[in-house]
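Help needed: design a sequence for this.
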């Protein structure tokens, strides 16, 4: 596909998302819960984790501005008119669900990391900014895919438990907005590669940086958040098949960065990050699994 065509397609996708998916209003939610203790035991920790991640969207926007000082209109419209307004509502709604379940509100981590600031300083050089942009899209694709999978699991679990009000008015509406985010990042990363925006050395650098800096959604390079993610993996049953999960969340970068590596089903650093989180949770724990 020619560069113009892929740009137009992405811009159209962003416009459609904005029109089809307005931010979910807080008062559209039915907060009826039949057995709060049971919901808390099974999904309390995961809801807490997701609420925090969603509320961290404001930091993600700051990071984006640091990494992509010359951000174009399509990206600007996506993060300011579509993505941020949707994600912040997800965070606020989940955070209220948390407190309805008798748990503490989420504590979002709002500091832009030193690593991002360094990369941001270098991103004033156009070739580095192009690498940062691909990394940003790959991160988006992987984290949004993780969100989609988590909300699918929670939705199915809540329905099984007969908690239809919160499943249908909280989790499902949120769940419906995540695939559009994933599609945006997937299309954007794919277009950069198919339009040959990056030279071989830039792709090489992107691979090295991805290998060194890959993080699961919401882990922020912090051991406590990694352990908390390990517990999410435990509570959602992801730890029963880490390789299958790595394949799911690594599919985009596997195709775009690592297709030349025959016989490698997913980037190894993704499985490594998953194992690290699960091990950290098992070693240091994160409260009893039933808390
Ligand atoms: Fe979200
Ligand atoms: Fe999202």
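Sure. Designed sequence:
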């Amino acid at each position: 596909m020619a560069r113009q065509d892929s740009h137009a397609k992405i811009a159209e996708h962003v416009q459609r998302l904005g029109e089809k998916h307005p931010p979910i209003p807080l008062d559209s939610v039915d907060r009826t819960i039949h057995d709060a203790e049971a919901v808390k035991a099974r999904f309390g920790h995961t809801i807490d984790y997701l609420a925090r991640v969603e509320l961290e969207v404001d930091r993600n926007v700051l990071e984006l501005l640091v990494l992509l000082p010359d951000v174009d209109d399509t990206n600007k419209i996506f993060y300011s008119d579509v993505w941020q307004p949707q994600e912040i509502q997800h965070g606020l709604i989940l955070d209220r669900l948390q407190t309805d379940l008798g748990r503490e509100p989420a504590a979002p981590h709002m500091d832009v990391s030193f690593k991002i600031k360094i990369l941001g300083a270098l991103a004033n050089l156009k070739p580095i900014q192009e690498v940062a942009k691909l990394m940003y899209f790959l991160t988006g694709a992987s984290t949004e895919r993780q969100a989609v999978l988590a909300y699918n699991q929670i939705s199915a679990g809540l329905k099984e438990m007969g908690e239809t009000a919160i499943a249908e008015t909280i989790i499902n509406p949120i769940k419906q907005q995540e695939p559009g985010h994933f599609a945006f990042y997937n299309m954007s990363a794919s277009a950069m590669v198919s339009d040959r925006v990056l030279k071989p050395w830039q792709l090489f650098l992107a691979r090295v940086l991805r290998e060194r800096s890959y993080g699961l959604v919401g882990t922020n390079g912090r051991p406590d958040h990694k352990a908390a993610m390990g517990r999410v993996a435990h509570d959602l049953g992801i730890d029963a098949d880490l390789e299958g999960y790595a394949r799911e969340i690594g599919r985009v970068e596997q195709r775009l960065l690592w297709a030349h590596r025959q016989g490698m089903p997913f980037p190894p650093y993704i499985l490594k990050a998953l194992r690290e989180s699960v091990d950290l949770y098992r070693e240091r724990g994160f409260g009893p699994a039933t808390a």
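Residues 126-160 form the longest helix (35 residues).
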